[in-house]
UniProtKB/TrEMBL annotation:
Listed InterPro entries: Cornichon
Protein name: Cornichon family AMPA receptor auxiliary protein 4
Subcellular location: Membrane
Residues passing through the membrane, by range: 5-25, 52-75, 114-131
Superkingdom, taxonomy of origin: Eukaryota
GO process terms (BP): vesicle-mediated transport
Main location: membrane
Originating gene: cnih4
PANTHER family: CORNICHON-RELATED (PTHR12290)
Family: Belongs to the cornichon family.
Length: 135
């Protein structure tokens, strides 16, 4: 049972790593003016909910299997994703809004967040990989 939990979390984590890299590449394309803000934001907003669901799935799997340390490690990221999604102002296109992405340094903060999430998912990947081997 534990091996199945960590293997499914490992697969989930791989998807989140690829998604984080996609966010970084798309945001850097916007930063370099290779794509416009509307196109960038529509591409990214399409993946916000699947990212949130995948992170919640990993968190719930660790809660159900009673791996408290890994659960508590995943909980802040899952909570942050849910908070960002709920706090989208009315009238915005989504978490990433083309009219606001260049204002107030949002592009830099979105890029920083994507880099932090990439590092977090890489850390989780190695934790899950070690836990698969240890069981």
């Amino acid at each position: 049972m534990e091996a199945a939990v960590f293997i499914s979390s490992l697969v989930d984590c791989c998807a989140l790593i690829f998604l984080s890299v996609y966010f970084i590449i798309t945001l850097s394309d916007l930063e370099c003016d290779y794509i416009n803000a509307r196109s960038c934001c529509s591409k990214l907003n399409k993946w916000v909910v699947p990212e949130m669901v995948a992170q919640a799935l990993a968190t719930v799997l660790m809660l159900v299997s009673m791996h408290w340390f890994v659960f508590l490690l995943n909980l802040p990221v899952a909570s942050w994703d849910a908070y960002r999604y709920v706090k989208v102002p009315m009238g915005n296109m989504g978490v990433y809004d083309p009219t606001e992405i260049h204002n107030r340094g949002q592009l830099k903060s979105h890029m920083k967040e994507a880099m932090i999430k990439l590092g977090f998912h890489l850390l989780c990947f190695f934790i899950y990989l070690y836990s698969c081997d240890a069981k």
